[in-house]
Write a structure and sequence with these properties.
The protein has a single domain, classed as Maf protein. It contains 5 helices and 7 strands, in the order βαβαβαββββαα. The protein has helices spanning 12-22, 48-63, 97-108, 174-180, 182-197, and strands at residues 3-7, 27-31, 66-76, 117-127, 132-144, 160-162, 167-168. A 7-stranded mixed beta sheet has the order 2-1-3-4-5-6-7. It is globular, with a radius of gyration of 17 Å. The protein starts with a strand and ends with a helix. 37% of the residues are buried.
Length: 198
Amino acid sequence: MPRTLVIATRNRKKFEEIAAILGPLHVALKSLDDFAAVPPVAETGETFEANARAKAGAYARATGEWALADDSGLQVDALGGRPGIRSSRWGGQEGNDRLNNETLLRALAGHPKETWTARYRCVMALATPDRVLAVTEGACEGCITEEPVGSNGFGYDPHFYLPELGRTMAEIPPEMKNRLSHRAQALAAMKTRLEKLL
């Protein structure tokens, strides 16, 4: 029997991104949707790593399985690294991409466009019910565009421009995103750790 690994998200697109990369491993992947009674874990940490560790440990204990959690977000230089750990709820409502992007553009309105450099950052933690086994991270550099372009991805992807590709994150196909993104980098490192642990 393969080991069950709980991917600590109810975001279907995020689950599919992670499953595409971890698919070759000998694990049975489940999302939090498979554990409807498990309540969400509050993200009270002040860093991506603190939140990833807290979520992985709490979901591992709640499900009795190994759990993989990430905390990720957008850091905009002109805004002193904001929205950072509050990226998914910056507009005031968890997971509302439209509100979050509107809030981002309002915050940037008084800053010169050349200062709109940004990065996506992701920290991933793997835990058993007893302890955290591994922590990895990844980052993807880019800049913010005023007009949204593209329909792939989610979150800030339509406004996150990748200069080396001349496209936004929402314009690139999922298989390319699964090689380039902050989450893909953190996950590639985690996949290596998982292979050894399994």
